[in-house]
Amino acid sequence: MAVATIADDRTTVVASRWWRPRVPATVGYLVVLVAVTSVFSALSDSAQSKVVLHASTNLHNLLQGRVVTLLSSALVIGDVGTAWLIMPLLASLLALAELRFGALHMVRVFLAGHIGATLLVAAGLWVAVEFDWLPASVRWSEDVGVSYGAMALIGALVFVVPGRLRIAWAVGWFAAAIGGVLLGQSFTNVGHLVAFCIGSAVGYGMIRTKVPVTRQFTRVERALLATSAILAAAILLG
Questions:
Q1: Nearest-angstrom CA–CA distance, 101 and 224
Q2: Nearest Cα to 160, choosing from 200, 111, 198?
Q3: What is the predicted pLDDT for the residue at 12?
Q4: Among 93, 97, 78, 67, residue whose Cα is nearest residue 36
């Protein structure tokens, strides 16, 4: 009877947990992103423009004290077609980071890149506008999307890629980010570079302070890593 009871208990535990995702933060964020994009796509062009400007982390909003845009900007992707294309790629990156870092640390790295790069770029734009290096109209620029947070995660993955590939991973993406700045010549390209540097700093910090990752990538994780690299290339050079 005791054995039967134990077996029944185990069955109950498994049955109650089978639906729980291994990457809850990734699933939760993607659900919200899909919902927001679905509603956004149903709006008129003028309404979409208003939403983007309201959610943007541009100088006007930040100087007005609308700090909520630091979060809302990560939930809005200005181009609907682009949004549907990149969400599967973003899901791969988030899932890989969550599997290797854990949900909490993945969210921290994403927000560090998203918010940190936004504020640093905004500070640079403010100085440029004050000294008339850039036109005042840049205050109202559209600045939404997931690219800063994504590039921070790409940088942080240096912690989990095989040791022999760490330098190539870091230097390769850094060079690609520099190339993006030279080709695009926009503050968004600069933000990508800054976000990658933030993520890389976190990754190398983990190398120094945490136990090195020795577990080999599974086939699924290798596929997620390859898809993440496609996303990074699209962000930096697209």
A1: 14
A2: 200
A3: 41
A4: 78
Contact (Cβ atoms closer than 8 angstroms) between residue 58 and residue 142: yes
pLDDT in tens, 12-33: 433 444 445 789 999 999 999 9
Query: What would the pLDDT profile of 44-62 be if each residue is shown by its tens digit?
Result: 999 999 999 999 999 999 9
For residues 74 and 114, the answer to whether their CB atoms sit within 8 Å is: yes
Spatial contact of 231 and 92, defined as CB atoms under 8 Å apart: yes
What end-to-end distance do the CA atoms of the chain give, in Å? 64
Give the percent of the chain with pLDDT over 70.
Answer: 89
pLDDT tens string 130-155: 998 999 989 988 889 999 999 999 99
Amino acid at 166: R
Tokens of 35: 């919902």
Residue 41 has pLDDT above 90, yes or no: yes
**Cβ contact 70:57 at 8 Å:** yes
**What pTM value is reported for the model?**
0.88
Question: Residues 169-196: what's their mean pLDDT?
Answer: 95
